[in-house]
Write a structure and sequence with these properties.
Layout: E1 2-4, E2 38-41, E3 53-59, E4 62-66, E5 77-86, E6 92-101, E7 115-119, E8 134-138, E9 150-157, E10 165-167, E11 170-172, E12 179-185, E13 192-195, E14 197-199, E15 206-214, E16 222-229, E17 233-237, E18 241-243, E19 248-255, E20 262-264, H1 267-271, E21 280-285, E22 293-295, E23 301-305, E24 310-321, E25 327-340, E26 347-351, E27 356-358, E28 364-372, E29 377-380, E30 395-402, E31 407-409, E32 417-420, E33 426-437, E34 443-456, E35 463-464, E36 467-468, H2 470-479
Parallel strand pairs: 1-5, 7-16, 18-25, 20-21, 27-34, 29-30
Antiparallel strand pairs: 1-2, 2-3, 3-4, 5-6, 8-13, 9-12, 9-15, 10-11, 10-14, 15-16, 17-19, 19-23, 21-24, 22-23, 24-25, 26-28, 28-32, 30-33, 31-32, 33-34, 35-36
Length: 480
């Protein structure tokens, strides 16, 4: 509501006027009175500096409000105007009507339809053409002449705005009216305005509506909507709990609903983008366990095997890179990756036809193969072995921890493979343990076990005092 204050006569050109005029100006009735001017104060705001003086004049198209400067206390749009007059006899009259406040405006070349999106961080980004975010076309006066000279700039922010901005180093808050932000030399700038602009607070999204004017007589203004944004992303994992060594940990950062920037792992790609019109956000992993490595892909990823159990912080940071190669963080996030210990995860069984063997006379050959747990490329552990794991394959080293003295590892095999015969009757145990070999060569215990042979005397063997007849033993060996 724009209100005329006090008993205010209006300038007219005659008496007893009630004629209808063309155009869109309001029709009013007013009887003779002394011509003067009146003040207008905008709704819900306080005027800074001298009040704005308006004149309501009778023109060919109707009554028009005439002012040298746009209203710093009102806003572009429709208003109710109330005017009260008093004649020489003391009789008063009040009229109320709607006016449309639509001063001349200047287009903003960096904003389509005078609406711009800027990152929600305290950094003024230039666009792909290296223009400041608040860059306009030339300011034209009503007579078509380009505005020149040095003039104080003032900025107002609509009270319905929900974010604050910093323009030319001055903070502008919702509801601020006519805030001076310094003088600007339009002559040097060929009549064009170019100022830095950024969010006043990091990480806040919202919209601010600005009205930017000068104190120059008859100058236009800038009506601009500024939106602040932050990345909307999610860090995801195939599983947030993985088994030590055996599970590949796979992480990625993906855009979600409401995201305005394309994600990239390339700094050069991010730097070459237009941070205002088509931003590209650089995704980097921070913190990242040493066993995980970034993966070059369309979707930023990191993956690897975790060789030490425990809980790990994993995170990302998202940055914009301006044309001057200044990197500014705009978002970040962290999560916990849990690595569970292997324990006795692996088991092996002998490849044999029977667990029974004849004493001395029966040659044995047995290979140990994995029977339980995730697949591990298993080798016999010997001095100087260099079979190490990688992200591509997990390798294990099997060590014989207990063997009958006549059974041993075949030295020509790299896999667990025993050869020999069993000399003592009764139960003979074979014991083993297995370790995962990390890429650095350290060992992670992954299981242990045993198997047994029931050793019996061969058929027809003779005994003397508990010992087999030596001649028969030699004849049986010859038959073996």
């Amino acid at each position: 509501m724009v209100t005329a204050i006090g008993a205010v006569p209006l300038i007219t050109s005659g008496v007893a006027m009630a004629e209808s005029y063309g155009g869109t100006a309001p029709h009013i009735e007013h009887r003779a009175g002394d011509g003067t001017s009146f003040k207008v104060i905008g709704p819900g705001t306080n005027v800074t500096g001298d009040p704005v003086i308006l004149t309501l004049a009778n023109r060919a198209e109707g009554y028009k409000i005439i002012t040298d400067n746009p209203l710093p206390s009102s806003w572009v749009g429709d208003y109710k105007l109330s005017a009260t007059t008093r004649d020489g006899n003391g009789a008063s009259a009040t009229r109320e009507w709607t006016i449309t406040y639509a001063p001349a405006t200047v287009p903003v070349v960096t904003a389509a339809a005078n609406e711009i999106w800027i990152p929600g961080v305290q950094h003024s980004f230039r666009n792909g053409a290296r223009l400041n975010p608040l860059t306009t076309e030339a300011w034209k006066l009503p007579n078509g002449v380009t505005l020149g000279g040095t003039h104080e700039m003032r900025v107002s922010m609509h009270k319905d705005s929900n974010v604050s901005l910093v323009i030319a180093g001055v903070r502008i808050n919702p509801g601020d009216v006519g805030v001076p932000i310094g003088s600007y030399d339009f002559t040097t700038a060929s009549g064009k305005l170019s100022l830095p602009m950024m969010a006043a607070d990091d990480g806040r999204e919202g919209q601010a509506r600005l009205w930017i004017t000068t104190v120059a007589p008859n100058s236009p203004g800038v009506d601009l909507r500024v939106n602040t944004w932050v990345p909307h992303v999610a860090m995801k994992a195939e599983s947030w709990s993985v088994r030590q060594a055996f599970d590949m940990a796979k992480l990625k950062v993906e855009p979600v609903a409401g995201n305005r920037c394309e994600l990239t792992s390339s700094r050069s790609t991010a730097r070459s983008s237009d941070a205002l019109a088509a931003p590209k956000c650089l995704v980097e992993w921070e913190p990242l366990p040493t066993d995980l490595k970034p993966v070059t892909a369309l979707t930023p990823m990191a993956e690897g095997r975790m060789w030490v159990h425990g809980a790990y912080d994993v995170g990302y940071k998202i940055s914009l890179v301006d044309p001057n190669d200044v990197q500014v963080r705009v978002a970040s996030g962290t999560a916990t990756l849990t690595v569970t210990p292997i324990g006795n995860l692996l088991a092996y069984q002998p490849q044999r036809s029977s667990d029974r063997a004849y004493r001395l006379v029966q040659p044995l050959e047995v290979m140990l193969k994995q029977s339980a747990g995730p697949s591990c490329d298993t080798y016999w552990s010997y001095e100087g072995a260099e079979y190490r794991s990688s992200d591509a394959v997990v390798r294990c080293a099997l060590t014989w921890t207990a063997l009958p003295n006549t059974l041993s590892q075949d030295q020509y095999w790299v896999r667990p493979y025993l050869k020999g015969a069993l000399e003592q009757a009764g139960t003979q145990d074979v014991r083993w343990k297995v370790d995962v070999i990390t890429p650095l060569g350290s060992k992670i215990p992954a299981g242990e076990g045993s198997f047994a042979y029931n050793v019996i005397e061969p058929p027809g063997a003779g005994y003397h005092g508990g010992h087999a007849d030596r001649s028969k033993r030699r004849s049986l060996r010859g038959l073996a």
